[in-house]
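Hi L.,

As promised, Sex-regulated protein janus-B:
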Amino acid sequence: MKMFKSLRLLPHIVSPFQKCYSTDLISLVGVPRVKITKGQNRYLLVNIHTHGFTKYGRVIVRGADVDNHLAVFDSILEELEPEGICAKILGGGRILNEAENKKIKIYGTSRTFGGADHTRTRNILQAWTTYKDFKITVKQ
């Protein structure tokens, strides 16, 4: 009898693990962590997650040579919404990407979304294979 009572608890134990490995969460892995252009960029540091699974998010960097950070945010939404992925902006700033000299400078803040953690942005860029050999400086 005790065994049957224990088996009744099994769905409550297994359910959290099923959420961790949901196919919805696997779609986050397909989103590139970094997308920036050469030259002067306005960038956003973004936490992405599938709807309902905010605990299992991923932080990405998106930047473009545009007039304001809102245009970068609009492009992020165009990219992620069809996949069913939600975005929370952690802050923004500017990135000067000198690809020919292998240098990147991260600085400034976004008037719309506030300042990003530039050190975290640098760590994400350094982990990305394209920018691992670049000299990345952060100016607060």
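The helical segments are 2-8, 10-20, 23-29, 69-80, 118-127.

Thanks again for sending the construct details.

K.
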